[in-house]
Amino acid sequence: MSQALPPLRLKKNEERRLRAGHLWVFSNEVDIKQTPLKDLEPGSAVSIEDSRGHAIGSGYVNPHSLICARLVSRDPKYTLDKSLLVHRINIALSLRDTVFSAPYYRLIHGEGDNLPGLVVDRFGDVLVVQITTAGMEHHKDDIVAALQQVLKPSAIVLRNDSPARQLEGLDSYVDTAHGELPEELLIEENSARFAIDPLGGQKTGWFFDHRMNRARMQQYVKGRRVLDVFSYIGGWGIEAAVAGASEVMCVDASQSAIDRIHQNAEINGLGDTVASLQGDAFEALKNLRQARERFDVVIIDPPAFIKRKKDFKEGLNAYHRINQAAMQVLNKGGYLVSASCSWHLKHEQLRDTLLKASRHVDRAAQIIEQGHQGPDHPVHPAIPETDYLKSFTARILSN
């Protein structure tokens, strides 16, 4: 239970979004005459109030951020502390235990698990934590202690090097907060095994969000030639090979990622099945087309081409070009798996991109599956930004 918290009072009617289920408070919604933001310490706990002084709940504040506060509990008696963290972690764990049979998943997905600013990925006995807000950073020790109490992991890594931290005025660092990492960290997904790097890899070292989409992809690859573009360390490509693809080529710009692809192929006994091509994805597809290389399945899972709203036009064009280029190396009747992690690109816009790209190369597209993020990346129904991942599996036919 908390002591009395300093108030953060909203302007008239600005509480409506919070009462409807949202968790964020924007700086222009605060009545700064009643509660000057500049007087509040970044990361400190506050009682969020409507314009009449009635408490909506407790949260934490950062006066230097556009999202200046995040709601933690709708009961103002409870604040962010170890006890609340343990409670929320247990709730999140019960969902993962229901859905997954092995301990490899995203354990905490920020707002989707009612812990805004916190991401935790579980790799067996190792937990990798990302903290993106001043409020969560303020409770870093509580987070580590709560995770130790609930899961008793052998190691906890803090991957606090996300660009989002800059918006909160936070330093960037990577640290092992508990235990020691094994020399090699192996994970399992869809009957495949992967060696990952939680200290130096992208994000936490792995992307669990496409797990279900990769599993569905495996239904289409047996005996077929597969191209995995933007492969990273081979998630899609290795899982295609495990599912019986006759040949897999993985494309990535990073030499360290390419090295890891071959390591993961060997771990799965697939060194002779998986080949690689290092270089820019657009150039690689152009060169493959000119060499008259053709594939039965092409997978396009790029990084976010649209990170900010102002990037939309240029990013949309990039999605069109990459899907068109993918279709140009696809055998007629072949399968295209096309994904986007850009929240700014809506589901229907990616679908329309596939339509336009197919018409541009004089082919017909037949959408046969639609995918999104897995259940360990729950969507908060009041926060559209948490519903970011989409994918289509399309059959590309001659006219």
Summarize the structure.
Helices cover 28% and strands 30% of the residues. The chain is built from eleven helices and 19 strands.
How many domains make up the 3D coordinates?
Answer: 3
Classify the helix fraction into a percent range. Answer: 25-40%
Order of helices and strands: EHEEEEHEEEHHEHEEEHEHEHEHEHEHEE
Arithmetic mean pLDDT: 96
Q: Class by helix and strand content?
A: alpha/beta
Task: Report strand order across the widest sheet.
Answer: 15-14-13-16-17-19-18
Mind describing the biggest β-sheet?
7 strands, mixed
The poorly predicted ranges are none
Shape: globular
Distance between the termini: 67 Å
CATH superfamily of the largest domain: Vaccinia Virus protein VP39
Total number of helical segments?
Answer: 11
Just name the CATH architecture of the largest domain. 3-Layer(aba) Sandwich
- What is the class of the largest domain in the CATH system? Alpha Beta
CATH topology of the largest domain: Rossmann fold
Question: Which value, in Å, is the CA radius of gyration?
Answer: 23 Å
Q: Which range does the strand content fall in?
A: 25-35%
What is the number of E strands? 19
If you had to describe this structure to a student in words, what would you say it looks like?
- By secondary structure, this protein is an alpha/beta fold.
- The chain is 28% helix and 30% strand.
- The mean pLDDT is 96.
Defining traits:
Archaeosine Trna-guanine Transglycosylase, Chain: A, domain 4; Transcription Regulator spoIIAA; Rossmann fold; alpha/beta; 30% strand; 11 helices; 399 residues; 3 domains; seven-stranded mixed β-sheet; five-stranded mixed β-sheet; 19 strands
